[in-house]
């Protein structure tokens, strides 16, 4: 393992410091009847990245590199759900309401599960997060520290919300962050393009972006 071909310049991968972070690949964001759909989004866009996310996960597993998954969800009693989050906008179903896949974005419900094709395997950490960023109100930072992880490759959804928020939080904490371009998606193509552009602008001000093939080539 050495440099990974990336933008705006090569990503200096360090095998013992590198992990894949798969953000929120949950039924609630991908399938009809979930949180994403309740907000009026076309969720079919998100399903298209599943094969690339899967390739990335399998590549990291084959290289014996850690894979960490996150899930955006709340406690059944909603004690970790600020009213400002629940009451925002005019969704057809609010967080905590009963939907076709169980209660929307609630821990343990069917809609909150990670897609079966991308499901964590034994030994992989799953971080349940009540916010958009993975560091807020979770053990994510401690897990990374305990494992000696300092470089994060990101996949998942949505690019400009939970992925970008977590990348920015990580960048401020001193982690080197690389976004896998085909393994992330937004409900809004223009937001994905803008997020990729702003992440790598100004000499990688938030981090790097790279193609899945180049990442897979770089980690063997
Ligand atoms: C959103 C997420 N978009 N996982 N959550 O509300 O990006």
From TrEMBL:
Please, which domain of life does this record's source organism belong to?
Bacteria
Task: Keywords in alphabetical order, please.
Answer: Hydrolase
Q: Which GO terms describe its molecular function?
A: hydrolase activity
Q: Which residues form the signal peptide?
A: none
Root EC class:
hydrolase
Q: What is its EC number?
A: 3.-.-.-
The UniProt entry, under InterPro entries, shows:
Isochorismatase-like_dom, Isochorismatase-like_hydrls, Isochorismatase-like_sf
Which Pfam families does the entry link to? Isochorismatase
Chain ranges of the Isochorismatase-like domain: 19-207
Q: Which PANTHER family match?
A: FAMILY HYDROLASE, PUTATIVE (AFU_ORTHOLOGUE AFUA_2G08700)-RELATED (PTHR43540:SF9), PEROXYUREIDOACRYLATE/UREIDOACRYLATE AMIDOHYDROLASE-RELATED (PTHR43540)
Q: What is this protein called?
A: Isochorismatase family cysteine hydrolase
């Amino acid at each position: 393992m050495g440099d990974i071909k990336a933008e705006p310049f090569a990503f200096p991968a360090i095998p013992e410091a590198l992990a894949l972070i798969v953000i929120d690949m949950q039924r609630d964001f991908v399938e009809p009847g979930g949180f994403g759909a309740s907000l009026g989004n076309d969720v079919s866009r998100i399903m298209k990245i599943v094969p690339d996310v899967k390739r990335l996960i399998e590549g990291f597993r084959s290289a014996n590199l850690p894979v960490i998954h996150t899930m955006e969800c709340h406690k059944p009693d909603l004690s970790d759900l600020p009213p400002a989050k629940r009451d925002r906008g005019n969704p057809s179903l609010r967080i905590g309401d009963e939907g076709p896949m169980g209660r929307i974005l609630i821990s343990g419900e069917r809609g909150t599960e990670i897609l079966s094709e991308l499901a964590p395997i034994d030994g992989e950490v799953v971080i349940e997060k009540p916010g958009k960023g993975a560091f807020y109100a979770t053990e994510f930072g401690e897990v990374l520290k305990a494992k000696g992880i300092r470089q994060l490759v990101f996949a998942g959804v949505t690019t400009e919300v939970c992925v970008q928020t977590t990348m920015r939080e990580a960048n401020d904490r001193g982690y080197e962050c690389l976004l896998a371009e085909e393994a992330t998606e937004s409900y809004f193509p223009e937001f994905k393009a803008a997020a990729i552009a702003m992440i790598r602008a100004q000499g990688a001000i938030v981090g790097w972006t790279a193609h899945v093939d180049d990442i897979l080539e770089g980690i063997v």
